[in-house]
Amino acid sequence: MNRECYGKLIFELSRKGRGGYRLPSNGCTPSVDELPEVLLRRTAPELPEVDEPTVVRHYNNMSTNNFGVDTGFYPLGSCTMKYNPKINEEMAADETIASLHPYQPSATVQGVLELYYTLQQTLSEIGGMSEFTLNTYAGAHGELTGLMVIRAYHAGRGDDRRVKVIVPDSAHGTNPASAAVAGLKVVEVKSREDGTVDVEDLRPLLDDTVAAVMMTNPNTLGIFERNIPEIASLVHEAGALLYYDGANLNPLVGVARPGDMGFDVMHINLHKTFSTPHGGGGPGAGPVGVRKGLEHLLPNPRVVKKDDGTFDISYSDCSLGQVTGTLGNFAVAVRALSYILSLGCDGLDMVGRLATLNANYVKESLRDAYLLPVDGVCKHEFVFDGLIDKSGGVTTLNVAKRLLDHGYHAPTIYFPLLFHESLMIEPTETESKETLDDFIRVMHDIAREAAESPDVVKSAPHNTPVGHPDDTNAALHPVVTYKELIDNVQQ
């Protein structure tokens, strides 16, 4: 590790007796004699002793080492980090919104309930569904809730034989995980060479034990499932329901609706498609929508509009129950509605189109240097199978690390699992042609380096605070205390 580049830990900046701020006495501090013996420390906590300028400079310097969509191109796109307009953050942080309590009486939060109701109606229109719930906290939570709706649907018909969920071999990992948590058995359906679901492999799997088929459209290769009408027909003929994984909804916004394709249940990742930064793992929201006839199964509570035009929180005995204690992550819903209303119909109509245009532009510009396993028009994302010229032994991981030297975050690597050296690129609709052209140039430069000077790429990154770590050793022997880290550095 380059200590000069990385900087020192806050503990290393500590000096005995030095301080920068002292809390005033509030007169309420109990004496040691009043505290139970079991709660008392045996030794004082080893906290850093630093002055205020040192603290401010340290954390400001540390912050410059972070990479985010506000500092550079982040080609993981709507999967992880697409640009989110700041007006949406301002709306969520507004004091009249941020200071509300989730259990306030309905009469005191009519504006909030109207916001919820409006977003429910808006998402229903965008997704082609009858009704949505905003209660779920994340995409995977939405998947689980959607599958619970499906189980409740079959149980309500007295059909207890349906215990299987069919998922494509290219599915997001949350699909089989959610099915398993829901108590369902996972059955895999294969993909064809063009990356789409093999309908002929699906046919014999559909019987009276199948509860649902889970699909993403476009799929994880960025390919639109052109046979979706036939698949929907087959699934419904077998008595099962079709579930839409909304992780890849971004390219369809303003272009097509899952409900019109025959999907019965879906979730939407508000934090992906509709504006909440979540690259660090949160916050999130995974609203679940259902077609007509399934609304009564959505979880409690629900926001409803009464005949007099006011709004209320409703509970139903027909519901599958509660999946959260409240109405979900309200601030995420605020951001989403702000995003949708800011764009308006005309703006939303361009989201999917521009995401698709940008992805195809990058794909076609790089296909001379990177192996394209599935040809044809993609949607919002596409997948390379590493470099075309692999003679230098440069891997997808090496390419991703070298991108960091050029100021770009690495795209998704080694997913989907269909290809050994998967490199998934998703530029989104917000990036300019100039940004994409520069990224294309850098990717070509790395490809040339891989052929002419492969060791340069293999040893990357060279210009980051942390260089090329031993991934295996880091996983097997993690350093979790600052003292151990200092000892390792000194050695």
What are the key terms here?
disordered N terminus, Aspartate Aminotransferase, domain 2, 491 residues, 37% helix, 3-stranded antiparallel beta sheet
Characterization of the model:
This protein has 491 residues and is an alpha/beta fold. Among the domains are: 61 residues, no CATH class; 255 residues, Aspartate Aminotransferase, domain 2 (3-Layer(aba) Sandwich), CATH 3.40.640.10. Helix content is 37%, strand content 10%. The protein has 17 helices and 12 strands. The chain has a 7-stranded mixed beta sheet with strand order 1-7-6-5-4-2-3, sandwiched between helices. A 3-stranded antiparallel beta sheet has the order 10-12-11, covered by helices on one side. A two-stranded antiparallel ribbon has the order 8-9. A hairpin with a 5-residue loop joins strand 8 and strand 9. The longest helix is centred in the last third of the chain and has 37 residues. The N terminus is likely disordered.
Summarize the amount of helix as a percent range.
25-40%
The first-level CATH class of one domain is given as Alpha Beta
Please state roughly what percent of the residues sit in beta strands, choosing from under 5%, 5-15%, 15-25%, 25-35%, 35-45% or over 45%. 5-15%
Please state the CA-atom Rg, rounded to the nearest Å.
26 Å
Q: So what's the oligomer here?
A: single chain
The main sheet comes to: 7 strands, mixed
* Average of the residue pLDDT scores: 91
User: Can you tell me the CATH architecture of one domain?
Assistant: 3-Layer(aba) Sandwich
Query: Can you write the helix and strand succession as a string?
Result: HHHHHEHEHEHEHEHEHEEEHEHEEHHHH
Number of helices: 17
The count of strands amounts to 12
Shape: globular
CATH topology name of one domain, in short, is: Aspartate Aminotransferase, domain 2
